[in-house]
Amino acid sequence: MFYHRRKGWEIDEREATPKALFLSRRAALATGLGAAAALAAPPAMAFWFGGDTPKPEPAAPDPTRDLYPARRNEAYRLDRPVTPQEINAHYNNFYEFGMTKDVSVPVQALRTRPWTLRVDGLVEAPREIGIDDLIRAGALEERLYRHRCVEAWSMAVPWTGFPLKRLVDMAKPLSSAKYVVFETFLDRSIAPGQAAPFYPWPYREGLTMAEAANDLAFLVTGAYGEPLARQHGAPLRLATPWKYGFKSIKSIRRISFASERPKTFWEGLQPAEYGFWANVNPAVPHPRWSQATEEVLGTGERRKTLLFNGYGEFVADLYAGLPNDRLYM
Q: Domain for residue 6, yes or no?
């Protein structure tokens, strides 16, 4: 009832197979490996050919459940209603667990405890932090953020977490650090998508130090007044609401500080379509579709896209000296 019903043969341009994926699959089929893989591949690889997915493990009680719901920070408000939790729970990109939007069942195989975060690179002392210790030290708050996907749909989400800047300060980066680099988990035994050789796993993202220090950059540990669901990137994800959603990396295992700009996951696959900055801009189309408007999920409404997703007052000054960079791709 919420989405446009297409004819059986009709697809949207944004659903076209990425070039890198298409070429890798075509090469496999040309050598006769495609059919063999479908029959003989281990369960993780068979998933990509329509096979079984790993069986979910029973979810243990979250050790930080008592911290939710957190106090709402009223400085972050919305111009639209919060997207219903049920819709958000079943409309997610999480390619580690499949190519469809509803990964809520296979993602339950993700083990979120025990979970440690590695902080390393150009810091005074590398360290590992248990996720529950990190969450309890975070002084959690709730923020209402818009979320804009590069596929031209949007949501409004009540995230719970703490400012990324707090972790940056705790890490004590060296003066030579210019970028913060994020990596997700790598476990092919429970994440079928990570068996696909045409993706540069693990998922990687990055921000400049200035972006990471901005008040909007938020490390998320919960949503809708509860600990973070697995499909949203439990137990720790990033929220950068002025950027397209693929920048908001899920299930973070490692945060590093570096002097050189990292090549991010989608940039490595399709640099002509997905760049490092990925700031929202209605005037700069994706090579295969317009970014001028967005579908607000759960409403049937299309809205005009806002520059920086409406957060320009917080972030525009970050890019004032970068006129020649591809800031909106």
A: no
